Amino acid sequence: MERKVIYSSGTRKFLRNLIYILFENDYFGFQEDAKNYVDRITIFIEEKIAEFPSKETPEVLKKFGERYVTYKANNRTTWYIFFSQEEDFYFIKFITNNHTDFIQNFNL
């Protein structure tokens, strides 16, 4: 069976908005660079979600997905990708990074 990755509508919206957030807040000097950064996150998800070792999500965060993987974008930023899995179907429910207060409260 072929792997299928599906994103929640909120996650799709977050990734689209992330391009503009990164550019508008001067994390990238060009909008195209911000788009490439977000593309690398989605490429990681699409290509590695089944291969990369996932971890069980702590009980208090399970509303975001039963499992999660991390993607280290650079020396400062790690992305947390929460998902649910049914055989070869991966439903990406939530994405955040280590800079959010939300994630800093947990030892993931």
In words, what does this structure look like?
The protein has 108 residues and is of the alpha+beta class. The protein has helices at residues 9-24, 31-48, 101-104; strands at 4-7, 55-56, 67-72, 78-86, 89-97. It has a five-stranded mixed sheet with strand order 1-5-4-3-2. A hairpin with a 5-residue loop joins β3 (67-72) and β4. α1 runs antiparallel to α2. The radius of gyration is 14 Å and the shape is globular. The mean pLDDT is 93.
Terminal residue distance = 31 Å
Number of strands: 5
Main sheet?
Answer: 5 strands, mixed
Strand content: 25-35%
**Order of strands, widest sheet:** 1-5-4-3-2
Q: Which stretches are low in confidence, meaning pLDDT under 50 for 5 or more residues running?
A: none
Determine the structural class based on helices, strands and strand pairing: alpha+beta
**Helix content class:** 25-40%
Average the pLDDT over all residues and give the rounded result. Answer: 93
Overall morphology: globular
Order of helices and strands: EHHEEEEH
Q: Please report the number of helical segments.
A: 3
Gyration radius over CA: 14 Å
Which oligomeric form is depicted? single chain
Quick structural overview:
By secondary structure, this protein is α+β, with helices and mostly antiparallel strands. It has helices at 9-24, 31-48, 101-104; strands at residues 4-7, 55-56, 67-72, 78-86, 89-97.
